[in-house]
Amino acid sequence: MKHVLGAVTVALFALMEPCLGLWTGPALAAEKATQEAAAPERSVTERTVPDRSELDQRVLVGEHRLHARVVGTGTPAVVLDTGMGDSLEAWGELLPRLGELTTTVAYDRAGLGESELGPEPRDLFAVAKDLRALLQGLGIEPPYLLIGHSLGGLHIRGFAHLYPEEVAGWIFIDPTTEGMIQSVLTEEGQAAVLQQLEGESEGVLAEARGVPHRLRQLDDLDPPPHIPAVVLSAAAPMHIPEEHREAAAAAGMTEERLEELLTLKLDLHRALADKLPQSEHITLPENHHYLHQQDPEIVVEQVRKLLGQIRRGQEVKAPVEDG
To answer: Could you tell me the pTM of the whole model?
Structure first.
């Protein structure tokens, strides 16, 4: 999502609201520009990039079609779930990199990217059922290593609640979790979010309308399965550009407040990791919310590690044939 919201929304969306997946307020836009400027230039000739038309598929899920891109071969398959409003293109270079390790699936949720709108409310379980039907339609068998960025962190938890036997591992990339974006649980807060998103596509608006449903469903989730998990927390400090500081200050947002919100976000991520029986929490002081774009190798390293754990576990469980 490329738009920039007003400076007044820095406090709302910067850290306590990461599930919106928006580099929205001026502080976020500045940080996004900073990380892109710092990223090394890459030529498309550095890697062999297949024609995307050979990789993209559209699968009928209920009465709507979802758009997916599948790269690589191997098991278990990696399945990617984006932040709010993002299409699968948000995975950038990470997608082909993971395809070098195993079968990797990225997709556009209903109403986003090239996928058709689906029925509302777009809650955790609706998203999970869509994803499972998509994977079945693609012929990709479980178990899956699920990766969720931002709002996607809620979705992969919902999938594991409905289909625990089909999930082999989790990676959470700067995820939304309990204690975040509580303002949208009120009618006033929800109305404010929708007002800020005026002009966005109907798919993005449907996602935003579904966020309160997702948050309330967290209380209904079963205890997490005993599978390996990694929580990656973006911890780079954010700064308010000079031209926006006056408006931000009038809204009660200062860089000191941003620092407090960052500390709170990291506490909430630690609490999430503590809930997961086999988890590791990794804090990344040089990285921002879209850390998989800034440095995809961070995620590649964790995927490689978890794939090794999962595959070794599968070997142990494999039946031994009688001689």
So the answer is: 0.83
